[in-house]
Automatic annotation (TrEMBL):
<dbReference type="GO" id="GO:0003860">
    <property type="term" value="F:3-hydroxyisobutyryl-CoA hydrolase activity"/>
</dbReference>
<dbReference type="InterPro" id="IPR045004">
    <property type="entry name" value="ECH_dom"/>
</dbReference>
<dbReference type="InterPro" id="IPR032259">
    <property type="entry name" value="HIBYL-CoA-H"/>
</dbReference>
<dbReference type="GO" id="GO:0006574">
    <property type="term" value="P:L-valine catabolic process"/>
</dbReference>
<feature type="compositionally biased region" description="Basic and acidic residues">
    <location>
        <begin position="14"/>
        <end position="28"/>
    </location>
</feature>
<keyword id="KW-0378">Hydrolase</keyword>
<feature type="domain" description="Enoyl-CoA hydratase/isomerase">
    <location>
        <begin position="55"/>
        <end position="174"/>
    </location>
</feature>
<protein>
    <recommendedName>
        <fullName>Enoyl-CoA hydratase/isomerase domain-containing protein</fullName>
    </recommendedName>
</protein>
<dbReference type="Pfam" id="PF16113">
    <property type="entry name" value="ECH_2"/>
</dbReference>
<dbReference type="InterPro" id="IPR029045">
    <property type="entry name" value="ClpP/crotonase-like_dom_sf"/>
</dbReference>
<feature type="region of interest" description="Disordered">
    <location>
        <begin position="1"/>
        <end position="28"/>
    </location>
</feature>
Length: 191
């Protein structure tokens, strides 16, 4: 006959048995094998989780991180970090943020706020829209140029400072480029 699905719709073992294909299914053996596999997976995965938890790289700066990143917006975060010159983590984080695209920082801040309210399917749809606009805006390509192509590490961002980034430009990143109902991930999450 060919294998499942070759001559028509695919079916599971119990449907094949009910259709009289001549083979037998042993539900007890199947459940037992599944339980064994699950136990082996647990023995591999659970220790990894413990390792990750034990080695949480930000645990020692969590209070500092929470204090600075609880600011209302990116300029507030930057100002908070700038006021904490005695904390090495704050100094390093500020230096890192100052290297990044101001537009991307503002979009990411908005994304985090908006994403908290989304289910997984809507979050993936939002990510695709943001990715589309990230390429279209030019800052992603400019970052690649500065870091990987010319290697001058001197990106010329679309907006040089956070103050120059228009809120309307940030909001435009969340507008789908596809017509209503035509998002490539529109069926994601449908049952």
């Amino acid at each position: 006959m060919g294998g499942p699905g070759r001559a028509g719709p695919a079916c599971d073992a119990s449907e094949a048995h009910d259709a009289g294909d001549g083979s037998r299914t042993d539900r007890h053996a199947s459940v037992s094998a599944s339980a064994d596999l699950l136990e082996r997976l647990r023995s591999i995965v659970l220790p990894l989780g413990r390792t990750w938890t034990d080695a949480a790289p930000l645990a020692h700066v969590r209070a500092t991180l929470d204090r600075h990143f609880s600011a209302i917006d990116v300029p507030g975060i930057v100002a908070s970090l700038a006021s904490d010159a005695q904390t090495p983590w704050a100094v390093d984080t500020l230096a890192l943020l100052q290297q990044r695209s101001p537009l991307s920082l503002c979009v990411t801040d908005r994304q985090l706020a908006k994403g908290r309210r989304l289910d997984l399917a809507d979050a993936f749809r939002m990510e695709l829209v943001l990715g589309y606009h990230a390429f279209a805006s030019g800052d992603f390509v400019e970052g690649v140029r500065a870091l990987l192509i010319d290697k001058d590490k001197q990106p010329r961002w679309r907006y040089a400072t956070l103050d120059e980034v228009p809120q309307a430009q940030v909001e435009a990143f969340f507008v789908s480029p596809w017509p209503q109902g035509e998002h490539p991930l529109k069926a994601l999450g449908d049952h």
